[in-house]
Amino acid sequence: MATFNLLLLPGDGIGPEVMNEVKRVAFWFNETGVVSFNIDEDLVGGCAYDEYGEPITDAAMQRATAADAVMLGAVGGPKWDGVPYDKRPEAGLLRLRRDLGLFANLRPAICYPALADSSSLKREVVEGLDIMIVRELTGGAYFGEPKEVVTLEDGQQRAVDTQVYTSSEIERIARVAFDLARKRRNLVHSAEKRNVMRTGVLWNEVVTRVHQDSYSDVELTHILADNCAMQLVRWPKQFDVIVTDNLFGDMLSDEAAMLTGSLGMLPSASLGEAQASGRKRAMYEPVHGSAPDIAGKGIANPIAMLASFAMALRYSFDLAEEADMLERAITSVLDQGLRTGDIMQEGMSRVGTDEMGKAIVAALEAQA
Ligand code: NAI
Ligand code: MG
């Protein structure tokens, strides 16, 4: 039986509440006897600052490095507004992403049939939607040097951010996108601005070369990033995998995510290089934050966190069948009419965090 080491970092606010439901589901998988998760837990964010004076300790970082996958809840909240900049809760998250080398951010946008009317777009535009945005996460304009503000002789200020990409950075993110596409609908759109940016020209050339050399079975389309933004709201179902840089990916992933409704539904994965074991460093987290306005009330939607766990099953553990089961269980509870407050609709049954988690386990049970 395959054994996997999971590190849970529940964090702050609703983080621990939604992470409880990951434990419930992981324990259920343990009981089926198909797979065994060793579960370890540590602090990150404001709670770690309160306990240790650091948003993540070196010991927790070591555990994260050794784990087969990290599940993160959420960090932050008004309680830590006055904390020094380098100790703020988000610094723990950034250290995890940086030190684990998580260069590939995967953000799916999935439209659950039961929620197709919650979108701001028409039902027929979003029904059945299943897009994966692959955003480069450790390069580009957010990290390039020089990055500075200088005062000029005439007293004006001049700010500079630099968009930098090397061919190897582009190649490794392109490979992630092509590999994903092969497990999906075999279609990749690569979005850049080759018409006005040198990095766009290089991006286009490298993606074309990687495609020709190793992935000619996948259908590749180059698209200008601004057109991609338009097409996402015009007819999003034309897309399967979209690969793009850090800056465009920030915008396009938020745009794609919101085609489908609530923040409480959206998972993400951040992947690094393959290790000697063959497994990639990886961290999975919901897109939402710590939701201090509803924390401690037991009403948070655990679906984004559980869908993030489904991504871990699929991308870290190669448990595609179990990932499908969990995703079907989520679809099934929505079809049954169960809704947390954030996705509540007229005539549906309002449930809390743990009721939703229990219903999802029952829906897993029904498939076993
Ligand atoms: P947020 O995502 O925490 O909340 C935005 C709104 O969505 C709130 O009304 C919240 O109640 C609701 N919401 C979010 N997740 C939900 C869920 N699972 N179920 C039901 N409702 C949900 O974003 P906000 O309010 O901007 O930030 C709150 C704190 O979280 C801040 O300290 C922020 O820095 C932090 N944050 C942390 C992130 C992370 O850990 N990755 C990401 C975004 C924000
Ligand atoms: Mg963003």
Polypeptide structure, described:
The relative contact order is 0.16. The chain is globular, with a radius of gyration of 21 Å. The longest helix has 18 residues, at 15-32. It has two domains: 1-103 and 263-368, Isopropylmalate Dehydrogenase, CATH 3.40.718.10; 130-258, Isopropylmalate Dehydrogenase (3-Layer(aba) Sandwich). The strands form three sheets. A ten-stranded mixed β-sheet has the order 2-1-3-12-11-4-5-10-8-9, with helices on both faces. A two-stranded antiparallel ribbon has the order 6-7. It contains twelve helices and 14 strands. The model has no long low-confidence stretch (mean pLDDT 95). With 368 residues, it is α/β, with parallel strands linked by helices. The structure holds 1,4-dihydronicotinamide adenine dinucleotide and magnesium ion.
